[in-house]
protein O-GlcNAc transferase
Amino acid sequence: MSELDRAAQLHREGRLDEALAVYAQLRDRDPASPETAFRMALVHAQRNDLAAANESLRAAVTIGDDARFRLLEGDLLERSGDVKGAIAALRKALALNGQLAPAHARLAFLLHDAGEVDAALAHFEAAAKLNPGDVRARSNLAGACESAGSAALGAGRVTLAHALLRRATEADPHRASSWVRLAAAAQHLGLIDESIDAYEQAEALDPPDAAQVGSARLVALHYDPRRTSNEVCDAHRAWAKRHAPSVPAPAFRNRRDVTRRLRIGYLSPRFHESSLTSLLAPVLQAHDRAEVEVRCYAHQDLEDTDTRRYRELSDAWVDVRSLDDAALARRMRDDEVDIAVDLAGHTPGSRIAAFSQRLAPVSVAWLDYFDTTGLEAVDYLLTDEGHSPEADTQPFVEELVRLPRLRYCFEPPAFAPAVEPPPCTRGGTDIVLGSFNRMAKISAATLKAWSLALHQVPNARLVIKNSALGHDEDRATFAQRFRDHGIDPARVEWRGYSSHADMLAEYNGIDIVLDTFPYTGGITTLEALWMGRPVVTLRGQTLISRQGAALLSAASLDELIAHDAKSYAQIVAGLASDPARLAGLSKDLRERMKASPILDAAGMARTLEQTYRNLWNRWLDRSASTT
C-alpha cells in the first residue's frame, strides 16, 4: 500500500490526526503534488479548521485546477457564509467537469435558496440523471420541483405549477405531498380525473395527514359528473370507516329539559373572512338568545375583522386548535353542548373526524358542505325541498331534515356597488355572458352547454374570471377546449384575480351569468343575482347539483332553470334576445331577493331554533325510553 493510500485509509477510518501527519510528510517530500494538498484540505475541512483547509486548497489550485477542488472550495465558502462565492466556485467546478453530480446537487440547493428557481431545477435534474439510482438525488429533485410548483401555484401560474408538480411525482413517486399539490393544480385546471387519481396516489402512501388528503379527494369527486351518488356516498362511508370509526355514545350530563335554553356548539375552521361569513354571521346575529346559547369552537390560525365579529356574536368563543379529537370531544361534553353543528364537512381544515367521538347528544351537519359526512355519529343533515326533494334517491348516512325554507340565507357584501343597466342596453352590440366560478367547476358538460349557447347567440362573447387565469399559458390551456367545441377563443375573454369589490363591480359589464354543473354555484350565484344579473343553471340529481336551482327558485326565477344542455342554451338565447327583460331584472332583482327567504336572516334563525328544539326533544324521548 502506498503512503498516499495509507493516509486515505486512515482518513476513512476517522483517524484524522494520523492521516494529516502522513499527508504532511508526503507534501514535504513532493510539494508540487496538488492531490496531496487537496486531501490535506479535506481533512482540515472535516476537522472544521476552515483557515487551514483554505490554505491547503489554495496550494492545490495554484499547482493545478480540478473540478473536485472547486467543489470543496464551494463547500468552504458556503460554510463561511459567502453564498455568492460558493455559487461561483461550483459553477467553475462544473465548467471543469459537467458530470460531477455532487456539484450539480449543491449548486441546485444554493440557487433555489437564492430564488433562481429555473436554474436550480436544471441542476437538480442533472444530478438525478447522472445518478439514476441515487434515491437522494431523485428526492432532492422532487423536493425542488414540489417547492417550485407550490410557489407557482401560490402565484397563480397554474399551468407551470402543474408541470413542475408532475415532474416531482415522476422523480419521487413515494412523496405524498407532491401528489397532493399535483391534485390541487390539476383541479385548478379542471383536470378532475387527474386530480382524483393524484389524491388516491397520496392516500395509498398513508401519510400522516391521510384523513385530510382523503377529505380533499371526497370534495374532488363532486366535480366529476360521471360519479354516481351511490359511488360518492360509498367513498364517504369508506373514509369514515378508515379515519373516524364511531365509538359508543358516552353518558351525557346535559340537563334533560324540554323547555330550557339550548346550548349550540358551532364548529368551523373558517370563523374569518370567507364565503361562510355571508351565510352564517347573519344567522348568529339573529339568533334568539332566550332560545339558544351560541358557542363557537374555532379551529383556525387566521384572525381578522370577521373573526372579531364572530367573537362578538358568540356567547362563548373556544379556540380548539391545540385539542386532538378526543380532547375536543371531552371539552364539548364538559361544556354540556346540547347540539354540535359541523359547518365544514370535508372542506379544508375540517374537524369532522372528531364527531366520531360523540361531541354532544345531538350532532348536525349544516351549511358549508354539500353531501353526507359519511359518519354514523352525525345524526342529521339540514337541507330543504329544493336541494333534496322528498323523491330524492341520493343516499346519505345522516337522516335528512328538510327545512321548510331555503337551507341558508345570505348577507350581501356591504361594499357591493350599485347595479347598472346591462351593457346590451347601454349601446353595446354584443351580448356579454360571464362566469366567475372556480375553474374546477367548469366540467366537460358545462363547457359543452356554454359552447351551444355561444353557437346559438352569434353576437355573444364570454367572460371567464378566475384566479387561475392570470397568465398566458393558463389561458391557452382553456382556449384549446373551446376550439374543440368549434368556438373561436377570440370570443372568450379571460380575467384573473381582483379584489372582491372589484369583482362585484365587473358584473355591471355582464348581461347574463352562466352557472356551472354538476357542481353549481352558491355564493357566486347569490352575488350575481344581487348585482342584478340573471343566472342560468341546470338542475341535477344531487344536493350540490341542485343548489343553483334551489337559489333561483327562492328568488322566483324558475324559468332560468334548465334540465339539459339544449334547454340551457335555449334559455341563454332567449334572454339574449330580450334586452328589455334583462334591463327589468337589473332593476328589480335586489328587491326580489329582499322579499325572498334568501335575505331573511330572522326567518332562518327561527327555523333553525325550532329545528334544534325538535331534534333535542327527539333525543330526550329516545334517552328516556332507554333508561
Residues 3-171 form a domain with the Serine Threonine Protein Phosphatase 5, Tetratricopeptide repeat fold (CATH 1.25.40.10). Residues 457 and 574 are 9 Å apart (CA to CA). The longest strand covers residues 262-268.
